Amino acid sequence: MTIAGVLADAVLVLHGLFIVWAVFGGFAVWRRPRLVWLHLPALAWGLWIEISGGVCPLTPLEVSLRRAAGGQGYTGGFIEHYLGGLIYPAGLTHGAQLVAAGVLALINAIAYGLLITRALQTRLRH
User: Fold this and answer.
1) Is the pLDDT of residue 32 over 70?
2) Distance of alpha carbon 13 from alpha carbon 58, whole angstroms
3) Exposed (0-12), middle (13-18) or buried (19+): which is 3, by Cβ within 10 Å?
């Protein structure tokens, strides 16, 4: 495997971890409230990419590295390429991205709503 191939795989892993963090990081904030300052920018970025219909810069970076390694790149976005069949049965459309943004917002609204409720209950007890 070439250096470009290793770097492409590293970008893939980083990209996947970033998506997981953006989606579920609000629950990590329950245990470590200071992580909110790392999670909120990731959440905002994820929402912006989905709502705007944009492509995360990590996607073209990974594609370029794959091509430099002698492999084939891909078209479309990270989620469409790797998870499209699971998440977007009919392919990635802007409508599907808006649904993904809604799911992202809902999951995090639940996480932060529970966090705020817990904080308020703790304050009311003291």
Assistant:
1) yes
2) 11
3) exposed
